[in-house]
Amino acid sequence: MSTIILLLITGLGLGALYFLVSSGLSLIYGLMGVLNFAHGSFLTLAAFTGWSIARRMGPDSWGSFAVALLAGAVVGALFAAATELILVRPLYKRHIEQVLVTVGLALATVALFEGIWGPDPIFISGPAWMKQVTVVLGAPIPNDRFVSIAGAVIVLVAIVLFLNKTRYGLIIRAGVENRSMVTALGIDVRKAFTLVFSIGGAAAGIGGVLASQYFGYVSPALGASLLIFAFIVTVIGGLGSLAGAAIASVLVAVLQQFANYYLGIGDVIVVLLLAAVLLIRPKGILGKQAA
After folding, report:
1. What is the SS3 assignment for 282?
2. Which spans are transmembrane here (predicted)?
3. Which among 54, 226, 89, 238 has a CA at the least distance from the CA of 152?
4. Residue 127: what pLDDT?
5. What is the phi/psi pair of residue 288, to 5°?
C-alpha cells in the first residue's frame, strides 16, 4: 500500500510539472494556432535564473526560493513575450515557418545555455524542508513533490480566474472559440496574443524552478526533456483545452511512474497511450472537433 501511495503522489508531483509546461502550450495553440517548440527554452532559462539568484542569496533559505520562483516567472514571461513579438508575430498563418523558427530558436538557445553554463548538469540544493520527507499512509514522500503540486494548483486557479474574471481573459476565451469574430468586432487580438505567450512563459518559468528542485539539478537539456511530455499531454488532453491539459498531466505522469516501477517501460507506455488516443479520439480528452 505504501508503494502505491508513494508512486501516486510522486506521479502527481511530476504531473504538476507537466501541467505547468503544457498549460502554456495549450493556451498558445488554442488562441493562436501556434505550436511553439521553443517553449522548453523559457523553462530552462528560468531554471538557470532561479538557480543563479538562489546561489547568491543562499540556496537553503525560503526567501531565496521564493525570489527564485518570482524571477523564474518574470524571466519566462519576458522571454516568451519577446519571442512572440519578434519571431512569431510576423509569421501568423504561416505554420511551417512558425515551426521552423521555433525549432531553430530551441536549438540555438540550448547551444547558448551550454556556452554560458556548460553542458553538464549542475546539482543544486534548496530549503532543507524540501529535501526531507513526510510520511503519508506509511509512504515517505519527498516534500518537494508537495511544493510542485501546490505550485501547479495555484497556477491553474490563477489562470482560470484570469480567463473568467478579467476583460483580457474574456477576449482570450472568445478568441479561442472564434478568433475571426473577435477581430470583426474591432478588438485588437494581437495584445491578447502577446499576453497569452507571456502567461505561458510565466507558467513554464515557475515550472522550471520547481523542476530543478524536483530533479535536483539544472541543465541546458532540462526544458527539452519536459517539453516532449508536455506536447504528449497537450495532445492527449485536447489542443487548446486547459482542463484537458490538467487531466492529461495527471494521467500521463501517474501512469508513467507506475509503469516505470513495475515494468521499467514508463516512456513506452506513455507513447502507446498517445497512439491509442490519436487512433480512438484524435481530438483528445476535452478537445473540440475541428471544423
Report:
1. coil
2. 6-27, 34-53, 65-87, 99-117, 146-163, 192-215, 227-254, 261-280
3. 226
4. 85
5. -105, 145
d(CA 45, CA 74): 11
* CB of 231 closer than 8 Å to CB of 25: yes
Annotated domain spans of the chain? 2-280
C-alpha cell at 13: 508531483
Tell me how far apart the alpha carbons of residues 221 and 242 are, in angstroms, rounded to a whole number. Answer: 26
159 vs 126, more confident: 159
Residues 6+ positions from 267 with CB-CB distance below 8 Å: 256
Rounded Cα–Cα distance for residues 79 and 199 (Å): 11
Terminus-to-terminus CA distance in the chain, angstroms?
47
CA angle 3, 219, 273 (to 5 degrees): 45
Helix (H, G, I), strand (E, B) or coil at 261: helix
**For residue 202, which of 75, 108, 288, 94 has the smallest C-alpha distance?**
75
Give 147-171 pLDDT, tens digit per residue. Answer: 999 999 999 999 889 888 888 788 7
Closest to 198 in 3D by CA, of 68, 87, 39: 39
Considering the domain 2-280 in this protein, what is its CATH number? 1.10.3470
Q: What is the pLDDT of residues 172-201, one digit of tens each?
A: 777 666 667 777 777 777 777 888 889 999
The Cβ-side half-sphere exposure at 275, using a 13 Å CA radius, reads: 6
Q: In the numeric block, which cell numbers belong to residue 74?
A: 518574470
3-state secondary structure (DSSP) of residue 286: coil
